[in-house]
Design goal:
This protein is mainly α. Helix content is about 80%, strand content about 0%. Helix 1 (about 1-25) runs antiparallel to helix 2 and helix 2 (about 30-60) packs antiparallel against helix 3. The longest helix is centred in the middle third of the chain and has 31 residues, at about 30-60.
Length: about 90
């Protein structure tokens, strides 16, 4: 939906700001611990956006009344989730 797309774009814009802040930290010579803390926060935020997209996609696919083979949809949803979650650490 447009509302969901807007929420995701807003999250990504905040994340973009975090990344710009990281660049400024590195350029100004901030200590490694502070930079790494912000990298972990940005990584977590990006993971949350990805999980949100996967969850929303799974939910919308599973409630779609036009779907005729629910098992196939569930299998595909699980496959997408496992693929994404394997890169989230």
């Amino acid at each position: 939906t447009d509302e969901e797309r807007r929420r995701i774009v807003n999250r990504l814009k905040r994340l973009e700001g975090q990344i710009r802040g990281l660049q400024a930290m590195v350029e100004s010579g901030k200590d490694c611990d502070a930079v790494l803390t912000q990298i972990m926060a940005a990584k977590s935020a990006l993971n949350q956006v990805g999980l949100h997209i996967v969850g929303h996609s799974m939910k919308s696919c599973l409630i779609d009344s036009d779907v005729t083979d629910r098992d196939e949809v569930v299998d595909e949803a699980i496959k997408v989730f496992l693929k994404y979650s394997s890169c989230v650490h």
